[in-house]
Amino acid sequence: MVLANRADAVKGINAAYSGLQQLGTYRRWLHFAYDLRSDDSFSQSPWGELADFTRFTQANYDFEVSQNLWRDHYRAIWRTNQVLANVPAIQMNETLKKRVLAEAKFLRALYYYNLAALYGNVPLALTPSDPTNLPAQATEAQVWEQVIADLQQAKPDLDATYSGGNDMGRATRGAAATLLGKVYMQNKQWALASAQFAEVISSNQYRLTTNYTDNFRHTTENNTESIFEVQFSDAKLGGNDGDDATSSEGGQRSQFWGVPGAGFVDGEVRPWVVNEFLQEGTTTGARDPRLAATVFYNRRQFTTALPVDADTLVYGNGFLRRFKGNARDLSRIYWRKYQTDYYRTFENFDSPINHRVMRYADVLLLQAEALNEQNQTGNAIPLINQVRTRVGLAPLTAGSFSQASLRTQIMHERVTELTGEGLRWFDLKRWGLLDSQASIDQLKARDTDFNSFQVGRSRLLPILQTEVDLARYQQNPGW
How far is the C-alpha of 378 from the C-alpha of 115, rounded, in Å? Predict the structure, then answer.
């Protein structure tokens, strides 16, 4: 790819954004790699190899899911590197040039953010590569360092906001600050993370939406709570799964995780998640409204003093009526986030719902966590209360928490606010719950898939066998 003028520069960065829409990124498989391998979700897919992948068992290191994850992230990185290598020489508006280069660095950082979390010790390609010029394999720490460097360089040259049109969905300064804060959180650099989140909060660019469900519907995309979204559309309904002009641009999570009769049911919810929501009601005595927005479930399975929430429809039908006489399906809990049940009675392979990679509620809770880890417990509580107040829960009382007890409370708050959004895997890693057999035994109690988890091995996916054989990259520990 040779970039020669302004139009080519914009086309080049747009091609890098298209990497977000691929099977191995946010279109399909990232949801399996993050959500279904966490303790809040699981798979009973009839495709045994897929179900095993979510249970930390992978005999074929080149299994389709891993192959797609690796391929599509590195293809997108190759495109960002083309932009970074060729755009500097183009004669064009300097402000736009800086923005394009900053967007490329942001996107490269996001792609490596995922690769570091999934594979750890991956090749670090910073220039356009080819089969005769393969990048060297880096350590996980080196990958994180590069992500930080890219975001630090990108942030000053990104626009603060976009008003709409063809530029809607581009990375902003707030998106770079948020992602940088999240990187620091994963590396337990609390003060550095807190500084980034403070920038986002004080910018006054973001606020929580009034309705929680606005974060998971195509009718309320790019809203005030959104910091960065993958832009999906069903305009090319029925297009292929490739990466060309005829390819679909819709998301596929809703098809793969839809309920029986509407989707493939490849992803389900663990019962402990529902019980987490039922720990407390709203100030009016109702159930936490985020429960009905998060899952489809049989209310009769869960004994609680809280009244049944009113929103009980499942793709236009009641839960009990839909699964009448089917004890197995009546007992299952299904994901509702990102499902299209609010406007149609079935799923297909093209969902128009944008995937919210980063939203403001996550920033508030992460900032609360960062402050608490710095012994600023009192300053953390008002941030948590913003999230609770939005859905009608009583505010936490200042002075009622120690650092340890607020840490536990934050863990609860992140489940009820963010479960099923691809963040739980990062939480488990950050909290050290994947690092010892004692903590894995705790996870086993609520998710039997962790019976297959091996400490020191299962935290990372295996490097593709073809990469090990052909490029002589070192395999991850234990694989």
Answer: 35
Read off the pLDDT of residues 33-74 as tens digits, 9 standing for 90 and up: 999 999 999 999 999 999 999 999 999 999 999 999 999 999
How many CA atoms are closer than 13 Å to the CA of 355, on its beta-carbon side? 24
* Of 337, 23, 10, nearest in space to 170 by CA: 10
CB distance 286 to 392 below 8 Å: yes
What value does the CA radius of gyration of the chain take, rounded to a whole number of Å? 22
Give me the pLDDT at residue 198, please: 98
pTM higher than 0.90 for the full model?
A: yes
Average pLDDT over residues 357-369: 98
Burial 110-140 (b: 16+ CB within 10 A, else e): bbbbbbbbbbbbbbbbbebeeeeeebebbeb
Q: Mean pLDDT across the chain, nearest whole number?
A: 95
With beta carbons less than 8 A apart as the criterion, state whether 28 and 252 touch.
Answer: yes
Closest CA to 74 of 32, 36, 130: 130
Q: Is 439 exposed, middle or buried (0-12, 13-18, 19+ CB in 10 A)?
A: middle
